[in-house]
Amino acid sequence: MRYVLQIGYDGTAFSGSQRQPGARTVQGVVEGAAADIFGVTTAVAFSGRTDAGVHAAGQICHLDGQTSVPPHKLREVFNRLLPPDVRVLASAAAPAGFDCTRGAKKKTYCYRMYAAPAAHPLLERYAVRVTPPPDLNAMRSAARLTVGEHDFAAFRASGSSAKTSVRTLYAVDISQKSVWGMPMWELRVTGNGFLYNMVRILAGELCAIGQGRAEERSLTEAFIVKERALLDKTMPARGLILERVDYGLLLFEEEAQ
Amino acid sequence: MRYVLQIGYDGTAFSGSQRQPGARTVQGVVEGAAADIFGVTTAVAFSGRTDAGVHAAGQICHLDGQTSVPPHKLREVFNRLLPPDVRVLASAAAPAGFDCTRGAKKKTYCYRMYAAPAAHPLLERYAVRVTPPPDLNAMRSAARLTVGEHDFAAFRASGSSAKTSVRTLYAVDISQKSVWGMPMWELRVTGNGFLYNMVRILAGELCAIGQGRAEERSLTEAFIVKERALLDKTMPARGLILERVDYGLLLFEEEAQ
Fold this sequence. Notes:
2 copies of one chain form a homodimer.
Chain A: E1 2-9, H1 26-38, E2 44-46, E3 55-64, H2 74-81, E4 86-93, E5 106-114, E6 128-129, H3 136-144, E7 148-151, E8 166-179, E9 182-191, H4 198-210, H5 217-225, E10 240-246
């Protein structure tokens, strides 16, 4: 029987999501709990990997096993075994033929930036301080240029092994709010897939445009010239949160997100 | 010369704000940095103490010393010496006769509660999970009964040594928002002073009313009968943030909050 899980994690103390020998990873920790529950070594597949330090509110996983625990109760059984920085937020029997990796149609990431006179102790864990404060309208105007199908080759860290660098972004939105009196910008990007470091490079370039250090046309140039060097630095992992993975299916009766 | 500091801290790893032998406290850490800067043992006064695990975005401190560093630059000098979980957000020369403890006219605290299927790894550090979800309107209606001058003797932990338990609340507001898809309630209380655990007891009782476990009149009864046992449990420290202390003065040229 195949089960599907929605999990959330604080990435601070993990060496990324993907299992690695000798490192504390989200997959390693979840597979450790699964082995205890099912009594045998159990592989847990992820919708995709997240880097060291990246957080998730809506990562989706699947696993195969046999247990008398009702599928929607697996959540509680996992949470009794998992450490507090990773939690199963929903569990269910997977639909027929479900594969959390190959079936993912859309993913939404959030990148959080704030301005403050110093690295703020209450914000720094899930956001990155930027200085000077970027202009919201300049970032929004530039963000609109990235919506649609483009070759994102310039928005990819070296060492990325994806076959094609063409991706479609369905929505790229930036909101501004005030958190503990400090301005916070949330960049929210929904696409059919993402290259290695793509959101963190996009966040860095939009911030540079908002700060007046780069021009809007750098984005359209990057789509044509396809060189990483045209764009600003990759932003730190701790500002990035995998918010949602969409399969065009209602996976959980009570949607946890 | 007297200096005034606005500081923020993540209370998770502190045994409260107040200096204690053999414990890691906010005052101990800030006084350690002050001793390095001024070259002598330097007492740092706080507007008031916060308990173990309570956070602050706008705690106000003062200290006396002599240095050639311009007052508004003291912030940076402190931040080079302080650990990442405490930061000076603003520094200035104190106005004549300023005392951060005796001069505090109003304080604002925020208490954060959320609902989720499990303790959420991205929310649990600065908020407390409550189940079932409380009703916003029931909490708001009850909150209005607490505004004004009342005897808060029932809203005080045993062992509190304040001379009088009469306090005035100027505003008690509750907002609801969605964070990572989970409902989050922020109780914001502004008053002329607070008894030991007063906000945490008030948050617990408002939550109980919102959940239908207590009735609105429990609050007015508690003002009259003055017994702690009439009210629900004290909520955990990690949901409480000292947001602002007001002196009726503009302390910092660039207000950091």
